[in-house]
Design a protein that fits this description.
Helix content of chain B: 40-55%
Radius of gyration of chain C: 19 Å
Number of helices of chain C: 6
Mean pLDDT of chain C: 84
Order of helices and strands of chain C: HHHEHEHEHEE
Order of helices and strands of chain B: HEEEHHHHHEEHHHHHHEEEHHHH
Number of domains of chain B: 2
Largest sheet of chain B: 3 strands, antiparallel
Low-confidence stretches of chain C: 203-210
Oligomer: heterotrimer
Shape of chain C: globular
Largest sheet of chain C: 3 strands, parallel
Structural class of chain C: alpha/beta
Strand content of chain B: 5-15%
CATH superfamily of the largest domain in chain B: Cytochrome-c3 Hydrogenase, chain B
Number of helices of chain B: 16
Radius of gyration of chain B: 21 Å
CATH class of the largest domain in chain B: Mainly Alpha
Distance between the termini of chain C: 17 Å
Helix content of chain C: 25-40%
Strand content of chain C: 5-15%
Structural class of chain B: alpha+beta
Strand order of the largest sheet of chain C: 1-2-3
CATH topology of the largest domain in chain B: Cytochrome-c3 Hydrogenase, chain B
Number of strands of chain C: 5
CATH architecture of the largest domain in chain B: Orthogonal Bundle
Shape of chain B: globular
């Protein structure tokens, strides 16, 4: 890859350059080591402009905008707790045991932006923006005014996932027809049953 | 070329004719539609409409295993199946941390550069057909393309949908006889490029119709995410082969041609010049290809379950930067599979390039963008 | 035609007298000048273009010019995946072609949806809306396969009779030559198939040519 930027460095630069912004580094478990930065929606536009215009970063090229559907998930983790456990001789003792704790993580939609610099030939810097939920609050700020390359790709995320990008100059469906009512790339989309019965052909 | 605001202001006065070009049109390179508003012959507004070939490639890939997506990648940019394969397997190799043996890397470069050659030749042929040279340049281009497809067929079993690369290498090894045939073909390619260029160089109609038409300024090209020969025609030096040095491209000495004006003529010349550089790379690769295995023995194809994580892998395809973004949730199917389609993103500034031009020039400008609808719509 | 008749024809032709029937002449003229519509949807279109190029040369079979306008074309080669967004346009183009008109469904996608069958935007075969004369399997079919399909179509035209119950559709006034264009619904196309399509084929719609 082109020179990979250290995610912690970029986070520090953003928080210094855009006062009030909070950035969280999301670690990437794969060997590609492409860690991403989770932004807050209210500062996203300002952060994007900073990343594009800052003399050291000059991330002038937004390569890819992806919509992702994270459904409601259950994560489980093993935690050590001290509990009263019945011992072999019948008495109760406090011991440290391992318990599996399940937490329910509510779902959300996510927009992922891959940024590179054509001037400095480095990258990618990966930004993530998350909506509040998957049901009734699926708005995100549009980064099309900052990088024009996001124009069609945000329309596609709107078309296939239902993410509403505020500030997009022309937000309408791009791949499916106007009037289509579903968001097909979501994990819970059920296609219509329209298989014609073959028996009718051989009359 | 005028500004968007000026043109939209004009669109409010006088008699405006609205024309829908496509989706069935002899020159739109597939099922692509442009809603054009004309004042006389001048374009005052242009909105591209696509989705007529949306085959939900991403959803199908998310429902299948990692291996099963490879034949579908052939059908993205259906003229260049080898480079599509490479983009995808590169992303999977980044995701799962797989290594590729050296001979496989050389074979990948050889087939990818052959693909680039036949794509650029075909594009020049189609561009000239759009200009009215009905059929003859395309016949020349397809003549060479058929020779290259014969090579692909003897190597991978299919002319167009090769399904040849795998994560960790390539599917089968090539024989010494095949390499010899490639050498002989590559020996004759410079003569073809010369002949092809001479057919068109100095042609007054070509010059008049392409020079100064459809100019794309540098800053707009970068901001709009344009990549590939179209970006370099506007003078921006960004070739993913040089920037990322993926595969073994850092071993080859080749130049990256750059344009000065960013008009259709520059874009057309870019393809001719890149065809020459491609021949240079092929000659070097054929000289240095070592013996050895073509598949990483540790790479698991069928039951690949990469660790939870994500990766973005990209290559320089003949159309631009082709990337694949994969999110793995630890199972055998990708959780999210996304294609970065260079053709679709290069279309973002189609309106900007066409405003103020004649309606007849929109066809040529669209032709110089080099789109394939399988990639635009996926 | 009987063996005696054939021998008589050969004898006469040796003496410079050429005999035929009106039906043969009519079919010969029509089958050798089938002009297709320039209609390519996806990958199969590239193989169709390769078939018209110098190596495979479809022009020798009479498909010399591909007409851009459906009003002047005889044949529509549906090459590539027909998506639900494109299907109304395909049916409209078919309706605009004048009779006699033929349809070749080229490739797996046009026959049944092909590898993209499980798609929310993919039509599972163009023969849901328009009658198809020849199907070519393949993904994509080789140019030789397209030529074979073309020759199969020519054979089909050759075997058509001008009178009788099994005369072709364009000579039967009561059979429809235009089919309803589907509309975009909220979840798919409405209707999802033209049930009358299969009834429009005279005789046995699935007759296999020997």
């Amino acid at each position: 890859m082109s020179a990979l930027l250290n995610a912690e460095d970029v986070k520090a630069q953003i928080e210094a350059g855009v006062p009030g912004s909070r950035v969280r580094v999301i670690q990437n478990g794969s060997p590609s080591a492409q860690h991403s930065l989770l932004l807050e929606n209210e500062h996203a536009r300002a952060v994007a402009e900073f990343l594009r215009d800052d003399a050291g970063l000059r991330l002038d090229y937004c390569s890819l905008v992806t919509g992702v559907d994270w459904t409601d998930r259950e994560t489980s983790e093993k935690v050590k707790v001290r509990k009263l456990v019945q011992a072999a001789d019948g008495t109760e003792q406090e011991q440290e045991v391992e318990e599996v704790r399940k937490t329910r993580v509510p779902g959300y939609l996510e927009a992922v932006y891959h940024l590179f610099s054509m001037e400095k030939k480095h990258g990618p810097v990966i930004l993530r923006l998350r909506t509040a939920n998957r049901t009734n609050d699926t708005t995100l700020p549009s980064l099309t005014p900052v990088w024009r390359s996001a124009e069609f790709q945000e329309r596609e995320a709107f078309d296939l996932y239902g993410i509403v990008f505020e500030g997009h100059p022309d937000l309408r469906r791009i791949l499916m027809w106007e009037g289509f009512a579903d968001y097909p790339m979501r994990k819970d989309y059920v296609p219509p049953a329209d298989d014609v019965e073959v028996a009718e052909v051989h009359r | 070329m005028s500004s968007v605001a000026e043109m939209h202001a004009i669109a409010g006065q006088g008699e405006i004719m609205e024309v829908s070009m496509g989706p069935h049109h002899p020159s739109t390179h597939g099922v692509f539609r442009m809603d054009v508003r004309l004042e006389g012959e001048r374009v005052v507004r242009l909105k591209p409409v696509f989705g007529y070939l949306h085959r939900n490639h991403e959803k199908i890939a998310e429902h299948g295993a990692y291996l099963g997506a490879i034949p579908y990648t052939d059908r993205l940019d259906y003229l260049c199946s080898m480079t599509n394969n490479w983009g995808y397997v590169l992303a999977v190799e980044k995701l799962a941390g797989l290594a590729v043996p050296e001979r496989a890397e050389y074979i990948r470069v050889i087939v990818a550069e052959l693909t680039r050659f036949q794509n650029h030749a075909g594009l020049v042929g189609f561009l000239l057909q759009d200009m009215g040279a009905s059929g003859t340049p395309l016949m020349y281009a397809f003549r060479e393309r058929e020779k290259i497809l014969d090579l692909f067929e003897s190597l991978s079993g299919a002319r167009m949908m090769c399904n040849y690369m795998r994560f960790g290498g390539v599917r089968v090894d090539c024989s010494a006889a095949w390499l010899e045939e490639v050498r002989q073909l590559v020996g004759r390619l410079p003569q073809f490029v010369d002949e092809f260029e001479k057919l068109l160089r100095g042609n007054e109609i070509l010059m008049a119709r392409t020079q100064g038409v459809g100019v794309l300024p540098r800053e707009l090209a970068v901001n709009a995410g344009v990549t590939g020969p179209m970006l370099r025609a506007s003078g921006v030096n960004y070739d993913v082969r040089k920037v990322d040095r993926y595969g073994i491209y850092d071993r080859f000495a080749f130049r990256v041609p750059l344009g000065e004006h960013g008009d259709v003529y520059d874009r057309y010349m870019m393809r001719i010049l890149e065809m020459r550089e491609t021949v240079t790379i092929l000659e070097q690769a054929l000289k240095d290809i070592p013996a050895g295995p073509v598949m990483d023995p540790k790479a698991k194809l069928r039951g690949l379950r990469p660790k939870v994580g994500e990766a973005y892998g990209r290559i320089e395809s003949p159309k631009g930067e082709l990337g694949f973004y994969l999110i793995s949730d630890g199972t055998g199917n990708p959780y999210r599979y996304r294609v970065r389609p260079p053709s679709m993103i290069n279309l973002t500034i189609l309106e900007d390039m066409c405003l103020g031009e004649n309606i007849a020039d929109t066809v040529i400008i669209l032709g110089s963008v080099d789109i394939v609808l399988g990639e635009v719509d996926r | 035609m009987g063996q005696d008749l054939k021998e008589l024809k050969i004898e006469l032709s040796k003496n410079g007298i050429f005999t035929t029937t009106l039906e043969e002449l009519y079919n010969w003229g029509r089958k050798n000048s089938v002009w297709p519509l320039t209609f390519g949807l996806a990958c199969c279109a590239i193989e169709m273009i390769a078939t018209t190029m110098a190596r495979y040369d479809l022009a020798r079979f009479g498909a010399e010019v591909f007409r851009p306008s459906p009003r002047q074309a005889d044949l529509i080669i549906v090459s590539g995946t027909v998506t639900k967004k494109m299907a109304p346009q395909v049916v409209r183009l078919y309706n605009q072609m004048p009779e006699p008109k033929y349809v070749i469904a080229m490739g797996a996608c046009a026959i049944s949806g092909g590898p993209f069958r499980d798609g929310y935007n993919v039509l599972k075969g163009i023969d849901r809306y328009i009658p198809v004369d020849v199907h070519i399997p393949g993904c994509p079919p080789r140019p030789e396969a397209l030529i074979h399909a073309f020759m199969t179509l020519q054979k089909k035209i050759d075997e058509q009779s001008l009178a009788g119950a099994d005369r072709p559709r364009h000579l039967q006034a009561e059979l429809p030559s235009e089919f309803p264009v589907p509309e975009f619904g909220e979840h798919g196309l409405e209707p999802s198939a033209n049930r009358d399509v299969f009834a429009a084929q005279p005789g046995n719609p699935l007759k296999v040519l020997q």
